[in-house]
Protein: Glycerophosphodiester phosphodiesterase
Organism: Plantactinospora solaniradicis
Amino acid sequence: MFFHTARRGACSLVAAAVVAAGLLVGGTSAYADEDPRIEQYRQALAALKPLVRQPVCDQVPEPGRWLDAGEPDEGADDVIISAHRGALTLAPENTLKSYEYAFAYGVDLVEVDVQQTRDGRFVALHDSTVDRTTNGTGNIADLTFAEVRALNAADYDPWRGGEYDGSQVASLDEILDLARRVGGGLELDIKGSVTEEGQLAELVGRYGLVEESIFNSADPRILVAEPGARLIYNRDLWEPGFLIYEIGQVFKVYGSRLDEYSPESVAAAHDACAVVMPHAYDAGPDQEVAQFQLARSIGADGVQTNQPALIVGAAGEAVDSRIVVRRDRTGDRVCLVNADNGLGFPGKSVHLAKGRGSKSLDLVTGNAGCVTAPGRNWRGASVSFAGDDAVHGSAGRLH
């Protein structure tokens, strides 16, 4: 499992639990034992800790490094990559195709915005209303599962009128089934419409994905239903190192903005055997690789990204590909797919050559990583993909 740490060489979730208990948390303060929020957090953690079932932490804490880390920790050798709302630059966010494309690049997790419909079903949608990304209107909590699934989840720019127009809002069952098939997990960002967090955890358990997944919530019902569940804590700027260490006894994953982390806070989280995976996307799309590299330089174990292909390439974790030729009534379809899980890569250039290269053509893959070959006169041609930073090259032949 990827949740290990290495050593040297959306709002706070505990805060949410404290607020739920009627305790006010907010503002900034000095890193001092007398800060009243520290005791409030400790009370919230004490209520959750008996419910947690995690492996014994064998890390020897070094409190001095929580104030001055010196040389930063080294993050996990196998970089943890979570694809935010799937591969949202390749397909409409929170659609099944978006998640398929993310897993094609071999990411560990896909981040799923979990909403609950009026009849108690779980779906993937970021907003509390369906207005922004679909052709419908209204609060998702007021709509039935069937009503949500009848909507067009690509009814917004730049997807409106394109090849993904008509996509459905993904059901959580679909995403869980996909993750189980490819050996991945879910980062579950649980939204306000969700009222049955225990049932949500049980659903993840039925798919056998509790160990592979993480829950962005402090609701104790998750741990009651699945004591082995891993919770995410979204870092703020005020927490002193000793409190980060204490939070890490319960919350085994640290997330949120990169600018809220330092080598010292990462060291404190690692001392609790927690992993650190901040956002890479907050500084904008052009800065994701630089943000990923900065995160790794201070000891982060991975990141959450809007562009999984870029981060997979920057991490040096390119995946293998293969070329598959499928014949249907429209002709030969050339598909570039992940060699292990069969999921396609859109937007890749494949090269056709015939007659010892005297006749050649470049085509760009589309939906599902496929493109239609130009005609029968190209049968027998070689097909190749040169490879790039994220996907190794491969070759095949038209039948």
Notes: The CA atoms of residues 21 and 126 lie 26 Å apart. The first helix runs from residue 13 to 20. Residues 1-31 have pLDDT under 50 and may be disordered.
